[in-house]
Amino acid sequence: MKKSIFISVSVIALLIAYVFSDTLFHQPLKIKSLENKNDGVIEHQVLHHNDTVNLNHAEEKSNTSPSDINKSTEHSNSKIATCDKEPNFDIYQYFASQETLENNIFDDTYLSNLLDQDAVSLESQTTQALLSLAKNSDDISSLLELYQENQNNKLIAHHVLIACKTQKCDKTLISNALNTDRNNGASWLAYANLIHSEEIFENTSSALINAANAPVYTEYWSERFNLVEETLNQLGVNTEYSPIISQPISAAFPLPGFRVISDICQNADPNDIRLLDACINLGKQLELSQSTLISTAIGVALQRQAFEKLGDENALSFLDKSSNAFNLKMIESAKAAQIVMRNKEHALAYYEHLKSSNEVAASSFLINQAKTLSSLDGFDPCAVNW
Predict the structure, then answer these.
(1) With 90 as the cut, is the pLDDT of residue 206 above it?
(2) 116 Cβ partners below 8 Å, 6+ apart?
(3) 265 membership: H or E segment, kind and range
(4) What are the start-end ranges of the H helices in 79-140?
(5) CA–CA separation, 302 vs 280, rounded Å?
(6) DSSP characters for 173-223?
(7) 343: which strand partners?
(8) Which tens digits make up the pLDDT trace of 26-82?
(9) Could you give the C-alpha distances from 175 to 166, 254, 292, in angstroms and in order?
(10) How much is the average pLDDT of 193-222?
(11) Which of its termini does the chain have fewer beta carbons within 10 Å around, N or C?
(12) Where is this region: Disordered (predicted)?
């Protein structure tokens, strides 16, 4: 697909340089991202992909199945092989270059045309509305119409709260959407972003405290992934590549913005224990949800900001260890993607695992796959088997 959706970057390209540094919220993350330019704020979406390059076919096949890899233990001392002559393998660029493959399903114009012609089910209409929103943050009319017709749909309500601007959404609609997904901390966070005003800070603070204390925090990772895959099936795109197509599309759908909460936690009064507790608790919610790499990283950063305000050196020391481990994992994941994505069998197994889990857990699976493959006698890390 065109880079509007299928941006090429690694599974990992996420937060390696300063994912947990103090500059996390003050400099743009060095990843490729879709930009939500509402109110001039760039909000990054984590797209699961690989570093850029063209692929060459190779003939060798691995004798190790993904199921064998899934059963094996992750060996911390094992090394991941590298392909020095072609270090930046991009699965999406490869498929996008195959103009006749599956009626060119890797071209986003093809998908958009299918949706324009045949989006009649709730699933396909929701996918179309969220895809339009991913391309143009001002294009919210279809999403609002869907919500008016499906006011009990939590996924749609959640995205309404993310997409709405006060000048476009009336207060009743916003209130109804929040009520639909009121037990979800991510929707309270989206609501806090929506109502934030320095003149009435208490309202934003209250919403953030509700986000921190909500029973669950979900950005609907699996639901979005499955929504797109079901849409493809309904549109007649029944292919083994559906998970590979679905992932970057669903990952491009908007997430709650983190700028408001980051600024509030950084500027919180050290004596405002209630607000700092909310920063810590919401940070833990984000970290433990593990739905996306960016949410996990920001969750740790929010906790760091609060613990620094409180002068809690023990908590900061623990976060340092957690940050370092996560950072190393992301670096390993980047290398692992270069091995796994060259092999059809193992890449498809990875995407299936990703669909039913989350980005953090799937990174561990990816690393395990790559280490097992790398340990095979005669394994060629440059071989492309698609």
Answers:
(1) yes
(2) 128
(3) helix 259-266
(4) 91-96, 108-118, 122-135
(5) 7
(6) HHHHHHHHTTTBHHHHHHHHHHH--STTHHHHHHHHHHHHHSSB----HHH
(7) 385
(8) 322 222 333 333 333 323 332 233 322 222 222 333 344 444 444 444 455 578 999
(9) 12, 20, 27
(10) 90
(11) C
(12) 57-77
Helices (H) and strands (E) in the chain, counts: 17, 0
Whether residue 258 contacts residue 298, with contact meaning beta carbons closer than 8 Å, is answered with yes
Residue in the block written with tokens 């195959």: 98
What residue spans define the domains of the chain? 38-374
Contact 282, 188 (CB under 8 A): no
* Angstrom distance (rounded) from CA 236 to CA 307: 52
**Length in residues, the chain:** 386
The pair of three-digit structure tokens given for residue 348, joined into one six-digit string: 């498809």
The residue type found at 257 is: G
If DSSP codes are grouped into helix, strand and coil, which group holds residue 279?
Answer: helix
Using one digit for the tens of pLDDT, what is the confidence trace for 299-337?
999 999 999 999 999 999 999 998 899 899 999 999 999
Lookup result for tokens 């001039």 = 40
| The amino acid at 42 | I
Q: How far is CA 129 from CA 82, 136, 139, 249, in A?
A: 40, 10, 8, 12
Residue 17 identity: A
CA distance 212 to 114: 40
